Amino acid sequence: MGRWKHFSTCLVRYLLRLRAVSVRPAGSQELVTPKSVTISRKADHWFISFKIDSAAINTEKSVDVVGVDLGIKSLATLSTGEVFEAAKSYRKLEAKLSRLQYLNRHKTKFSSNWKRASLKIAKLHSMQSQH
After folding, report:
1. What is the extent of the structural domain holding 126?
2. Under a CB-based contact definition with an 8 Å cutoff, are residues 39 and 46 in contact?
């Protein structure tokens, strides 16, 4: 993990030094130079985020009002009668996650087998959060 952190730090410094990065925010036609760039890695996926300055945009307010009831059996019930069911992704993946964590518990920390098993656990956690 150390070399990836070093790589991302060097890449961010290089991009900021060059000022070569231009970003087009959603709904805008102009290119903006970011104030800072963050590169991160979670569960074998790379993410990049840009911090930019932008003017505040006023939006039209709608007058439609809907009440929301958050519940246990269902995620939410609207006052219009529409019901949103909960995903229950943890329940679906609980047994597999438990098994992977049990097997990883007996491995030597920071060995290649431990790192591989930890990556599987991280992927399962990210899959669980996406559903």
Report:
1. 87-131
2. yes
